Backbone:
C-alpha cells in the first residue's frame, strides 16, 4: 500500500492485530480528525506510535510548494513512489476553500490544449494517494486558519478512467474527512461509461463535463475521446445523470481564440444546454497558455460577448477567474515537470 490512506478501517484492525479496537479508532481519528502524524498521537503508547510511523508511511513526498494570488492559491508538487510527479492546488475564496486533486499521474486523453494531456499517461493514482492530497492540502489550509469545504477532481488525469479508486476516495472524503458529497465535483472529458457508473453510486456528487465544442467535428479535433463517445451519447448520459441525481451539471468551456468562441458556437452550445434544462451551467475559462499549443485564449471582450449571447439564449454562464496562472497552477497547466519557483512564506 503506497499510502497510509489506502487502508480501510478493517485493514488497520488487521494490521494492529492484538491491540484493542479502541486503538484502531484512535489511529483513525489521528488520521482523519486531527490530520496529524503518528508521533503526535500522544493518546497512544510511544512504542505503538513508533511502530505505526514505520508501518503506515505517507505516499507523497513534497517537492515544491508555490504560492500565488497573494497567498490565496497554493500549488503542491509531489513525488510518488516510482518517481512520477503529480500536483494538487489549494484555492482560498471568501467563504469557501477548495482543493483540486489529481486522479492520475499524467493523462491518456490527449487533449492538445492541456499540458497534462501533452505529457501523456504514466499511471493511475491509488485511493490513498488521492485522499492524501486532500489531507495534506487541508493541513496547510488549517495553518492558514481556513477549513476546506470543497474538493474538485480537476487536477491531472481523467477521474472516470480511474473510477473505482476515485469513488473509494470520494467515500473516504465524505464519511471520514467530513466533506459533504454535495461539495465534491468530478470533472470528466466525457467518458460515457464512467458517467453512467457515477450516476449509480450512492452519494450525490456533482458532475462537470469538459465540453469545449458543441458539434462532433469541432469536438473530435479538440477532445479526441469524442470520436469514441460522440455528443449524442454524451448528452444522453448527462440527461440520465440529471434524472438520477437532480443535480445541476456543469459544462466547462475553455475559450480558444477563433476556435470555439464564435456566435455559432454559442448557439450550438445553447442548443445542447436546452436539452438539459433547467439544470445545466456553463463555466467559461479563457484558455491558459501551455507549451505545446500555439493558439491563445479569447480576449476578454469576446469572452464577455460569448457569455452575453448564452445568457440571451437562456443559458446560465459564468466567466471563471483564473487562479495561479503565474505558478502554472491554472486549469490545464498542471504538468508536474516544469521548473517551479518556490515562494518563501
Ligand atoms: N480530465 C478531466 C479533469 C481535468 S479538469 C476533464 O477533462 O474534465 C481540467 C479542466 O481544465 C478541464 O475542463 C480541461 O478541459 C480544462 N483545460 C485543459 N487545458 C486547459 C487550458 N489550457 N486552459 C483552460 N482550461 C483547460
Residues:
Amino acid at each position: 500500500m503506497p499510502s497510509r490512506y489506502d487502508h480501510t478501517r478493517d485493514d488497520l484492525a488487521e494490521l494492529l492485530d492484538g491491540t484493542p479496537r479502541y486503538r484502531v479508532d484512535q489511529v483513525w481519528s489521528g488520521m482523519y480528525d486531527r490530520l496529524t502524524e503518528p508521533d503526535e498521537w500522544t493518546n497512544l503508547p510511544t512504542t505503538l506510535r513508533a511502530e505505526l510511523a514505520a508501518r503506515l508511511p505517507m505516499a507523497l513526498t513534497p517537492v515544491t510548494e508555490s504560492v500565488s494570488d497573494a497567498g490565496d492559491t497554493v500549488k503542491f508538487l509531489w513525488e510518488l513512489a516510482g518517481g512520477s510527479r503529480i500536483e494538487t492546488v489549494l484555492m482560498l475564496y471568501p467563504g469557501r476553500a477548495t482543493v483540486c486533486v489529481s486522479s492520475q499521474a499524467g493523462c491518456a486523453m490527449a487533449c492538445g490544449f492541456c499540458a497534462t494531456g501533452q505529457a501523456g499517461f504514466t499511471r493511475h493514482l491509488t485511493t490513498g494517494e488521492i485522499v492524501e492530497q486532500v489531507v495534506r492540502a487541508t493541513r496547510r489550509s488549517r495553518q492558514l486558519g481556513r477549513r476546506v469545504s470543497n474538493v474538485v477532481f480537476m487536477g491531472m488525469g481523467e477521474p472516470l478512467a480511474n473510477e473505482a479508486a476515485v469513488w473509494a476516495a470520494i467515500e473516504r472524503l465524505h464519511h471520514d474527512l467530513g466533506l459533504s458529497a454535495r461539495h465534491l465535483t468530478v470533472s470528466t472529458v466525457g467518458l460515457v461509461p464512467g458517467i453512467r457508473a457515477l450516476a449509480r453510486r450512492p452519494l450525490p456528487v456533482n458532475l462537470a463535463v469538459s465540453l469545449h465544442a458543441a458539434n462532433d467535428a469541432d469536438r473530435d479535433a479538440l477532445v479526441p475521446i469524442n470520436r469514441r463517445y460522440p455528443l449524442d451519447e454524451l448528452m444522453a448520459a448527462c440527461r440520465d445523470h440529471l434524472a438520477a441525481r437532480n443535480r445541476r451539471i456543469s459544462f466547462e468551456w475553455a475559450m480558444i481564440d477563433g476556435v470555439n468562441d464564435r456566435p455559432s458556437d454559442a448557439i450550438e452550445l445553447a442548443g445542447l444546454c436546452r436539452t438539459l434544462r433547467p439544470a445545466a451551467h456553463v463555466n467559461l475559462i479563457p484558455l491558459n497558455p501551455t507549451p505545446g499549443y500555439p493558439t491563445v485564449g479569447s480576449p476578454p471582450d469576446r469572452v464577455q460577448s460569448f457569455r452575453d449571447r448564452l445568457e440571451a439564449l437562456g443559458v446560465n454562464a459564468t466567466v471563471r477567474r483564473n487562479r495561479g496562472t503565474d505558478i502554472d497552477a491554472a486549469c490545464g497547466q498542471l504538468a508536474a515537470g516544469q521548473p517551479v519557483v518556490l515562494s518563501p512564506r
Observations:
- The radius of gyration is 21 Å.
- Residues 109, 111, 113-114, 154, 158, 187-189, 210, 252, 254, 285, 287-288, 290, 331-332 surround S-adenosyl-L-homocysteine (CB under 6 Å).
- The longest strand covers residues 85-93.
- Residues 127-143 form the longest helix (17 residues).
